[in-house]
Amino acid sequence: MDLFHVKIFLCLIFWSNFVKCTIELESFGSPSAFDENLYKEVLDTDKCKKELDFLADPINILRKLKFLDAGIKIPRGITSFNLVDLGNYFQCLDIGEDFEDRTIDGKYCMISVPLRQGNLQWPDAIDSVTLSNNPFGLLFSNNTVFDFENNEGNIRKVKTLEKSLHNLLGVEVNENGRVSTDSVLASLSLKLAACIPKTCTTKEALDSFYGNAVSAGLEYTEDFCRLPNDKPYVTADYVACVIFGLIGLLTLISTTYDINHCFLLKRDPKTANALYRSFSVYTNCKQLVTVTSSPSTIECLDGIRVLAMAWVILGHTYSTLGAFPLANPLARQEWLESWHSILITAAPITVDTFFLLSGLLVVYTTAGKFKRMDLIKNVHLFYLNRLLRMFPILAAAILLIASWYNHVADGPYWSVFASKVDRCRTYWWSTLLYVQNYTNQSKMCVGQGWYLAVDIQLHILSPLVLFWVLSGRRAAWTSMTLVLIASLTAATVYNAVNGFSAKIVGNTRDYFRLYYMNTLTRASPFFVGMLYGYVLYLTKNQKLHLKKPLFLTLWSISTLILTSTILVTYPVQQSSWRHRLADTLINSFLRPLWAAAVGWLIFACHKGYGGPLNWFLSLRFWKVPARLSYAMYIFHYAILNIVNYTHLAPVHFSDEAFLFRFIADFSLALFVAFFATLLIDSPCSTLIKMALTPGRKEEQQKATEKNAEAEIVSNGYTDKSRL
């Protein structure tokens, strides 16, 4: 066994042990993003009573007002169905009033208060003026409720928001004027912020601040509470410091060596030690921004990749920000069923563009370089190459979410992001092993990582097809056609049996768990890509002569498919949509049809039939962001969530505001991806190539590999066909 195969053997041992260790580590659990013990330790009934008595003294009314001002208020825009008021988060946590030998510190809590308060009985001593100013009154006069619920516009909006209340038109109000059980408002709750002394429970504080509200029968649930400095530093934080500190040190040393070699000693950069300069910022940055090309380069892929990634981020801008409390939630519901939302509701189809590119490139970069027996002998390299090249960026993102991201920002809804931190500290292994689309589906660490799992699983299966592709043209066409037909048939049967709706926005959890992240239902665009990859390989460096009627017809069909795929989301998103057969056909065939249309676009542009579109997609402007697309995909989602969950008030929904937000999101993702690629991906890529390259090559063979690498780099993808 030569040295090269010894290295491969060691890599396989490492990977198998890594799998074993990561699965075993899950049983130990992981620390929460918040210090749960801290919340329990600060509670003290005796201290709470003294502090509340102190604040109740009229002399201390201004001190009490600090808590009231930072806490409960009727949500602004409640008639527009804004049912959330987040109070003043930082003002509450900054409260520190001197009292005896300690301070009365603020604690921020969120509570849910149902609009229907059936058991609430206010003491007779509370007069009408107090009630009218009491945020817990929640009592509507008969006229107010009647006017609201008999307004056709309000009824329509409530039905859109609460689809389970379709036929509730009649309104009955009890003798106290409270919302009755069969009212369209009965199932809704107010989300209110409460600022209370940290030693108190919400019941103790609310009874004191709001006239025995809880004791009088106020129904509410406590969602969470927050305290200053409640994010403990855990093992993941220290591991991140060590790993990223080591990367920084290696970068400094490597860059110093590179600059000294090239500028101070003025030696030829080619004579520098590749290992020593692997982390050099100078060399890696130069390679990252250098734009080169070759005759066999598929230039239009750069523009397609960047535009597809922009569409992904645009869709996630709407979905992540739309999940945050909105000041006008009804406007979002109406928007979803309007023509204005088509570009967003159709955005998930862009993921199938990446599946197409992945299948296309796995054939295009493999055919012609291997014989079928060579593929069998080197299949371990095929897998290792793919797995290891995806690993560094993904691992870095997981580590950042599990550690530093929890400390970079804060806000009243940070608990939502904290749940993602907990997932990464507990279920990180299923993401790194690319099985999160089947394991821990509801607890995924990197939410968009399901795509990587499906992509890796398809690459694991691809040698079964590649073996026949490398066996000859007849075997290639037969194998790829059969596997595409088989995947379409299986997906159609699966969709018909399960009866999934074709809706993307507002669909059930089972849809995303059983269909959207399922390798079977998402495989067909990948196999369509393999067909196009083989066609491009067969016609490589050849000039085709298509008759004008033919390519115009193909362009018309492609345009019709692309347009129809986007427009079909409009009727599907309507609340009245109920067509099971159409759902099955859309779920089964829409994605491969999209892939086929985009595949023709790539083929036509590459073969000189793209016209101005090919010019636009092939601009050198696209090359650098295309190389960053993988890092952008991995990092952008967490970044969007960090920014969103620092908002201090409900967000107003509008296309204009969200589009401006998208520009910021895309720019920030591009910025982070550049440095992640420069400092992590590029150095690791060099090290992996050195580890997996067998022995010393002949000069001619080196030149061939260099040209092949230049071709791959210019296209913005590696031989693993990453994003």
UniProtKB/TrEMBL annotation:
<dbReference type="InterPro" id="IPR002656">
    <property type="entry name" value="Acyl_transf_3_dom"/>
</dbReference>
<feature type="transmembrane region" description="Helical">
    <location>
        <begin position="550"/>
        <end position="572"/>
    </location>
</feature>
<feature type="transmembrane region" description="Helical">
    <location>
        <begin position="450"/>
        <end position="470"/>
    </location>
</feature>
<feature type="compositionally biased region" description="Basic and acidic residues">
    <location>
        <begin position="699"/>
        <end position="709"/>
    </location>
</feature>
<feature type="transmembrane region" description="Helical">
    <location>
        <begin position="339"/>
        <end position="366"/>
    </location>
</feature>
<dbReference type="Pfam" id="PF01757">
    <property type="entry name" value="Acyl_transf_3"/>
</dbReference>
<feature type="transmembrane region" description="Helical">
    <location>
        <begin position="387"/>
        <end position="405"/>
    </location>
</feature>
<feature type="domain" description="Nose resistant-to-fluoxetine protein N-terminal">
    <location>
        <begin position="45"/>
        <end position="227"/>
    </location>
</feature>
<keyword id="KW-0472">Membrane</keyword>
<feature type="transmembrane region" description="Helical">
    <location>
        <begin position="630"/>
        <end position="646"/>
    </location>
</feature>
<keyword id="KW-0812">Transmembrane</keyword>
<dbReference type="Pfam" id="PF20146">
    <property type="entry name" value="NRF"/>
</dbReference>
<keyword id="KW-0732">Signal</keyword>
<feature type="transmembrane region" description="Helical">
    <location>
        <begin position="592"/>
        <end position="609"/>
    </location>
</feature>
<feature type="transmembrane region" description="Helical">
    <location>
        <begin position="658"/>
        <end position="680"/>
    </location>
</feature>
<feature type="transmembrane region" description="Helical">
    <location>
        <begin position="236"/>
        <end position="257"/>
    </location>
</feature>
<feature type="transmembrane region" description="Helical">
    <location>
        <begin position="520"/>
        <end position="538"/>
    </location>
</feature>
<keyword id="KW-1133">Transmembrane helix</keyword>
<dbReference type="InterPro" id="IPR006621">
    <property type="entry name" value="Nose-resist-to-fluoxetine_N"/>
</dbReference>
<feature type="region of interest" description="Disordered">
    <location>
        <begin position="699"/>
        <end position="723"/>
    </location>
</feature>
<feature type="transmembrane region" description="Helical">
    <location>
        <begin position="306"/>
        <end position="327"/>
    </location>
</feature>
<feature type="transmembrane region" description="Helical">
    <location>
        <begin position="482"/>
        <end position="500"/>
    </location>
</feature>
<feature type="signal peptide">
    <location>
        <begin position="1"/>
        <end position="21"/>
    </location>
</feature>
<dbReference type="InterPro" id="IPR052728">
    <property type="entry name" value="O2_lipid_transport_reg"/>
</dbReference>
<protein>
    <recommendedName>
        <fullName>Nose resistant-to-fluoxetine protein N-terminal domain-containing protein</fullName>
    </recommendedName>
</protein>
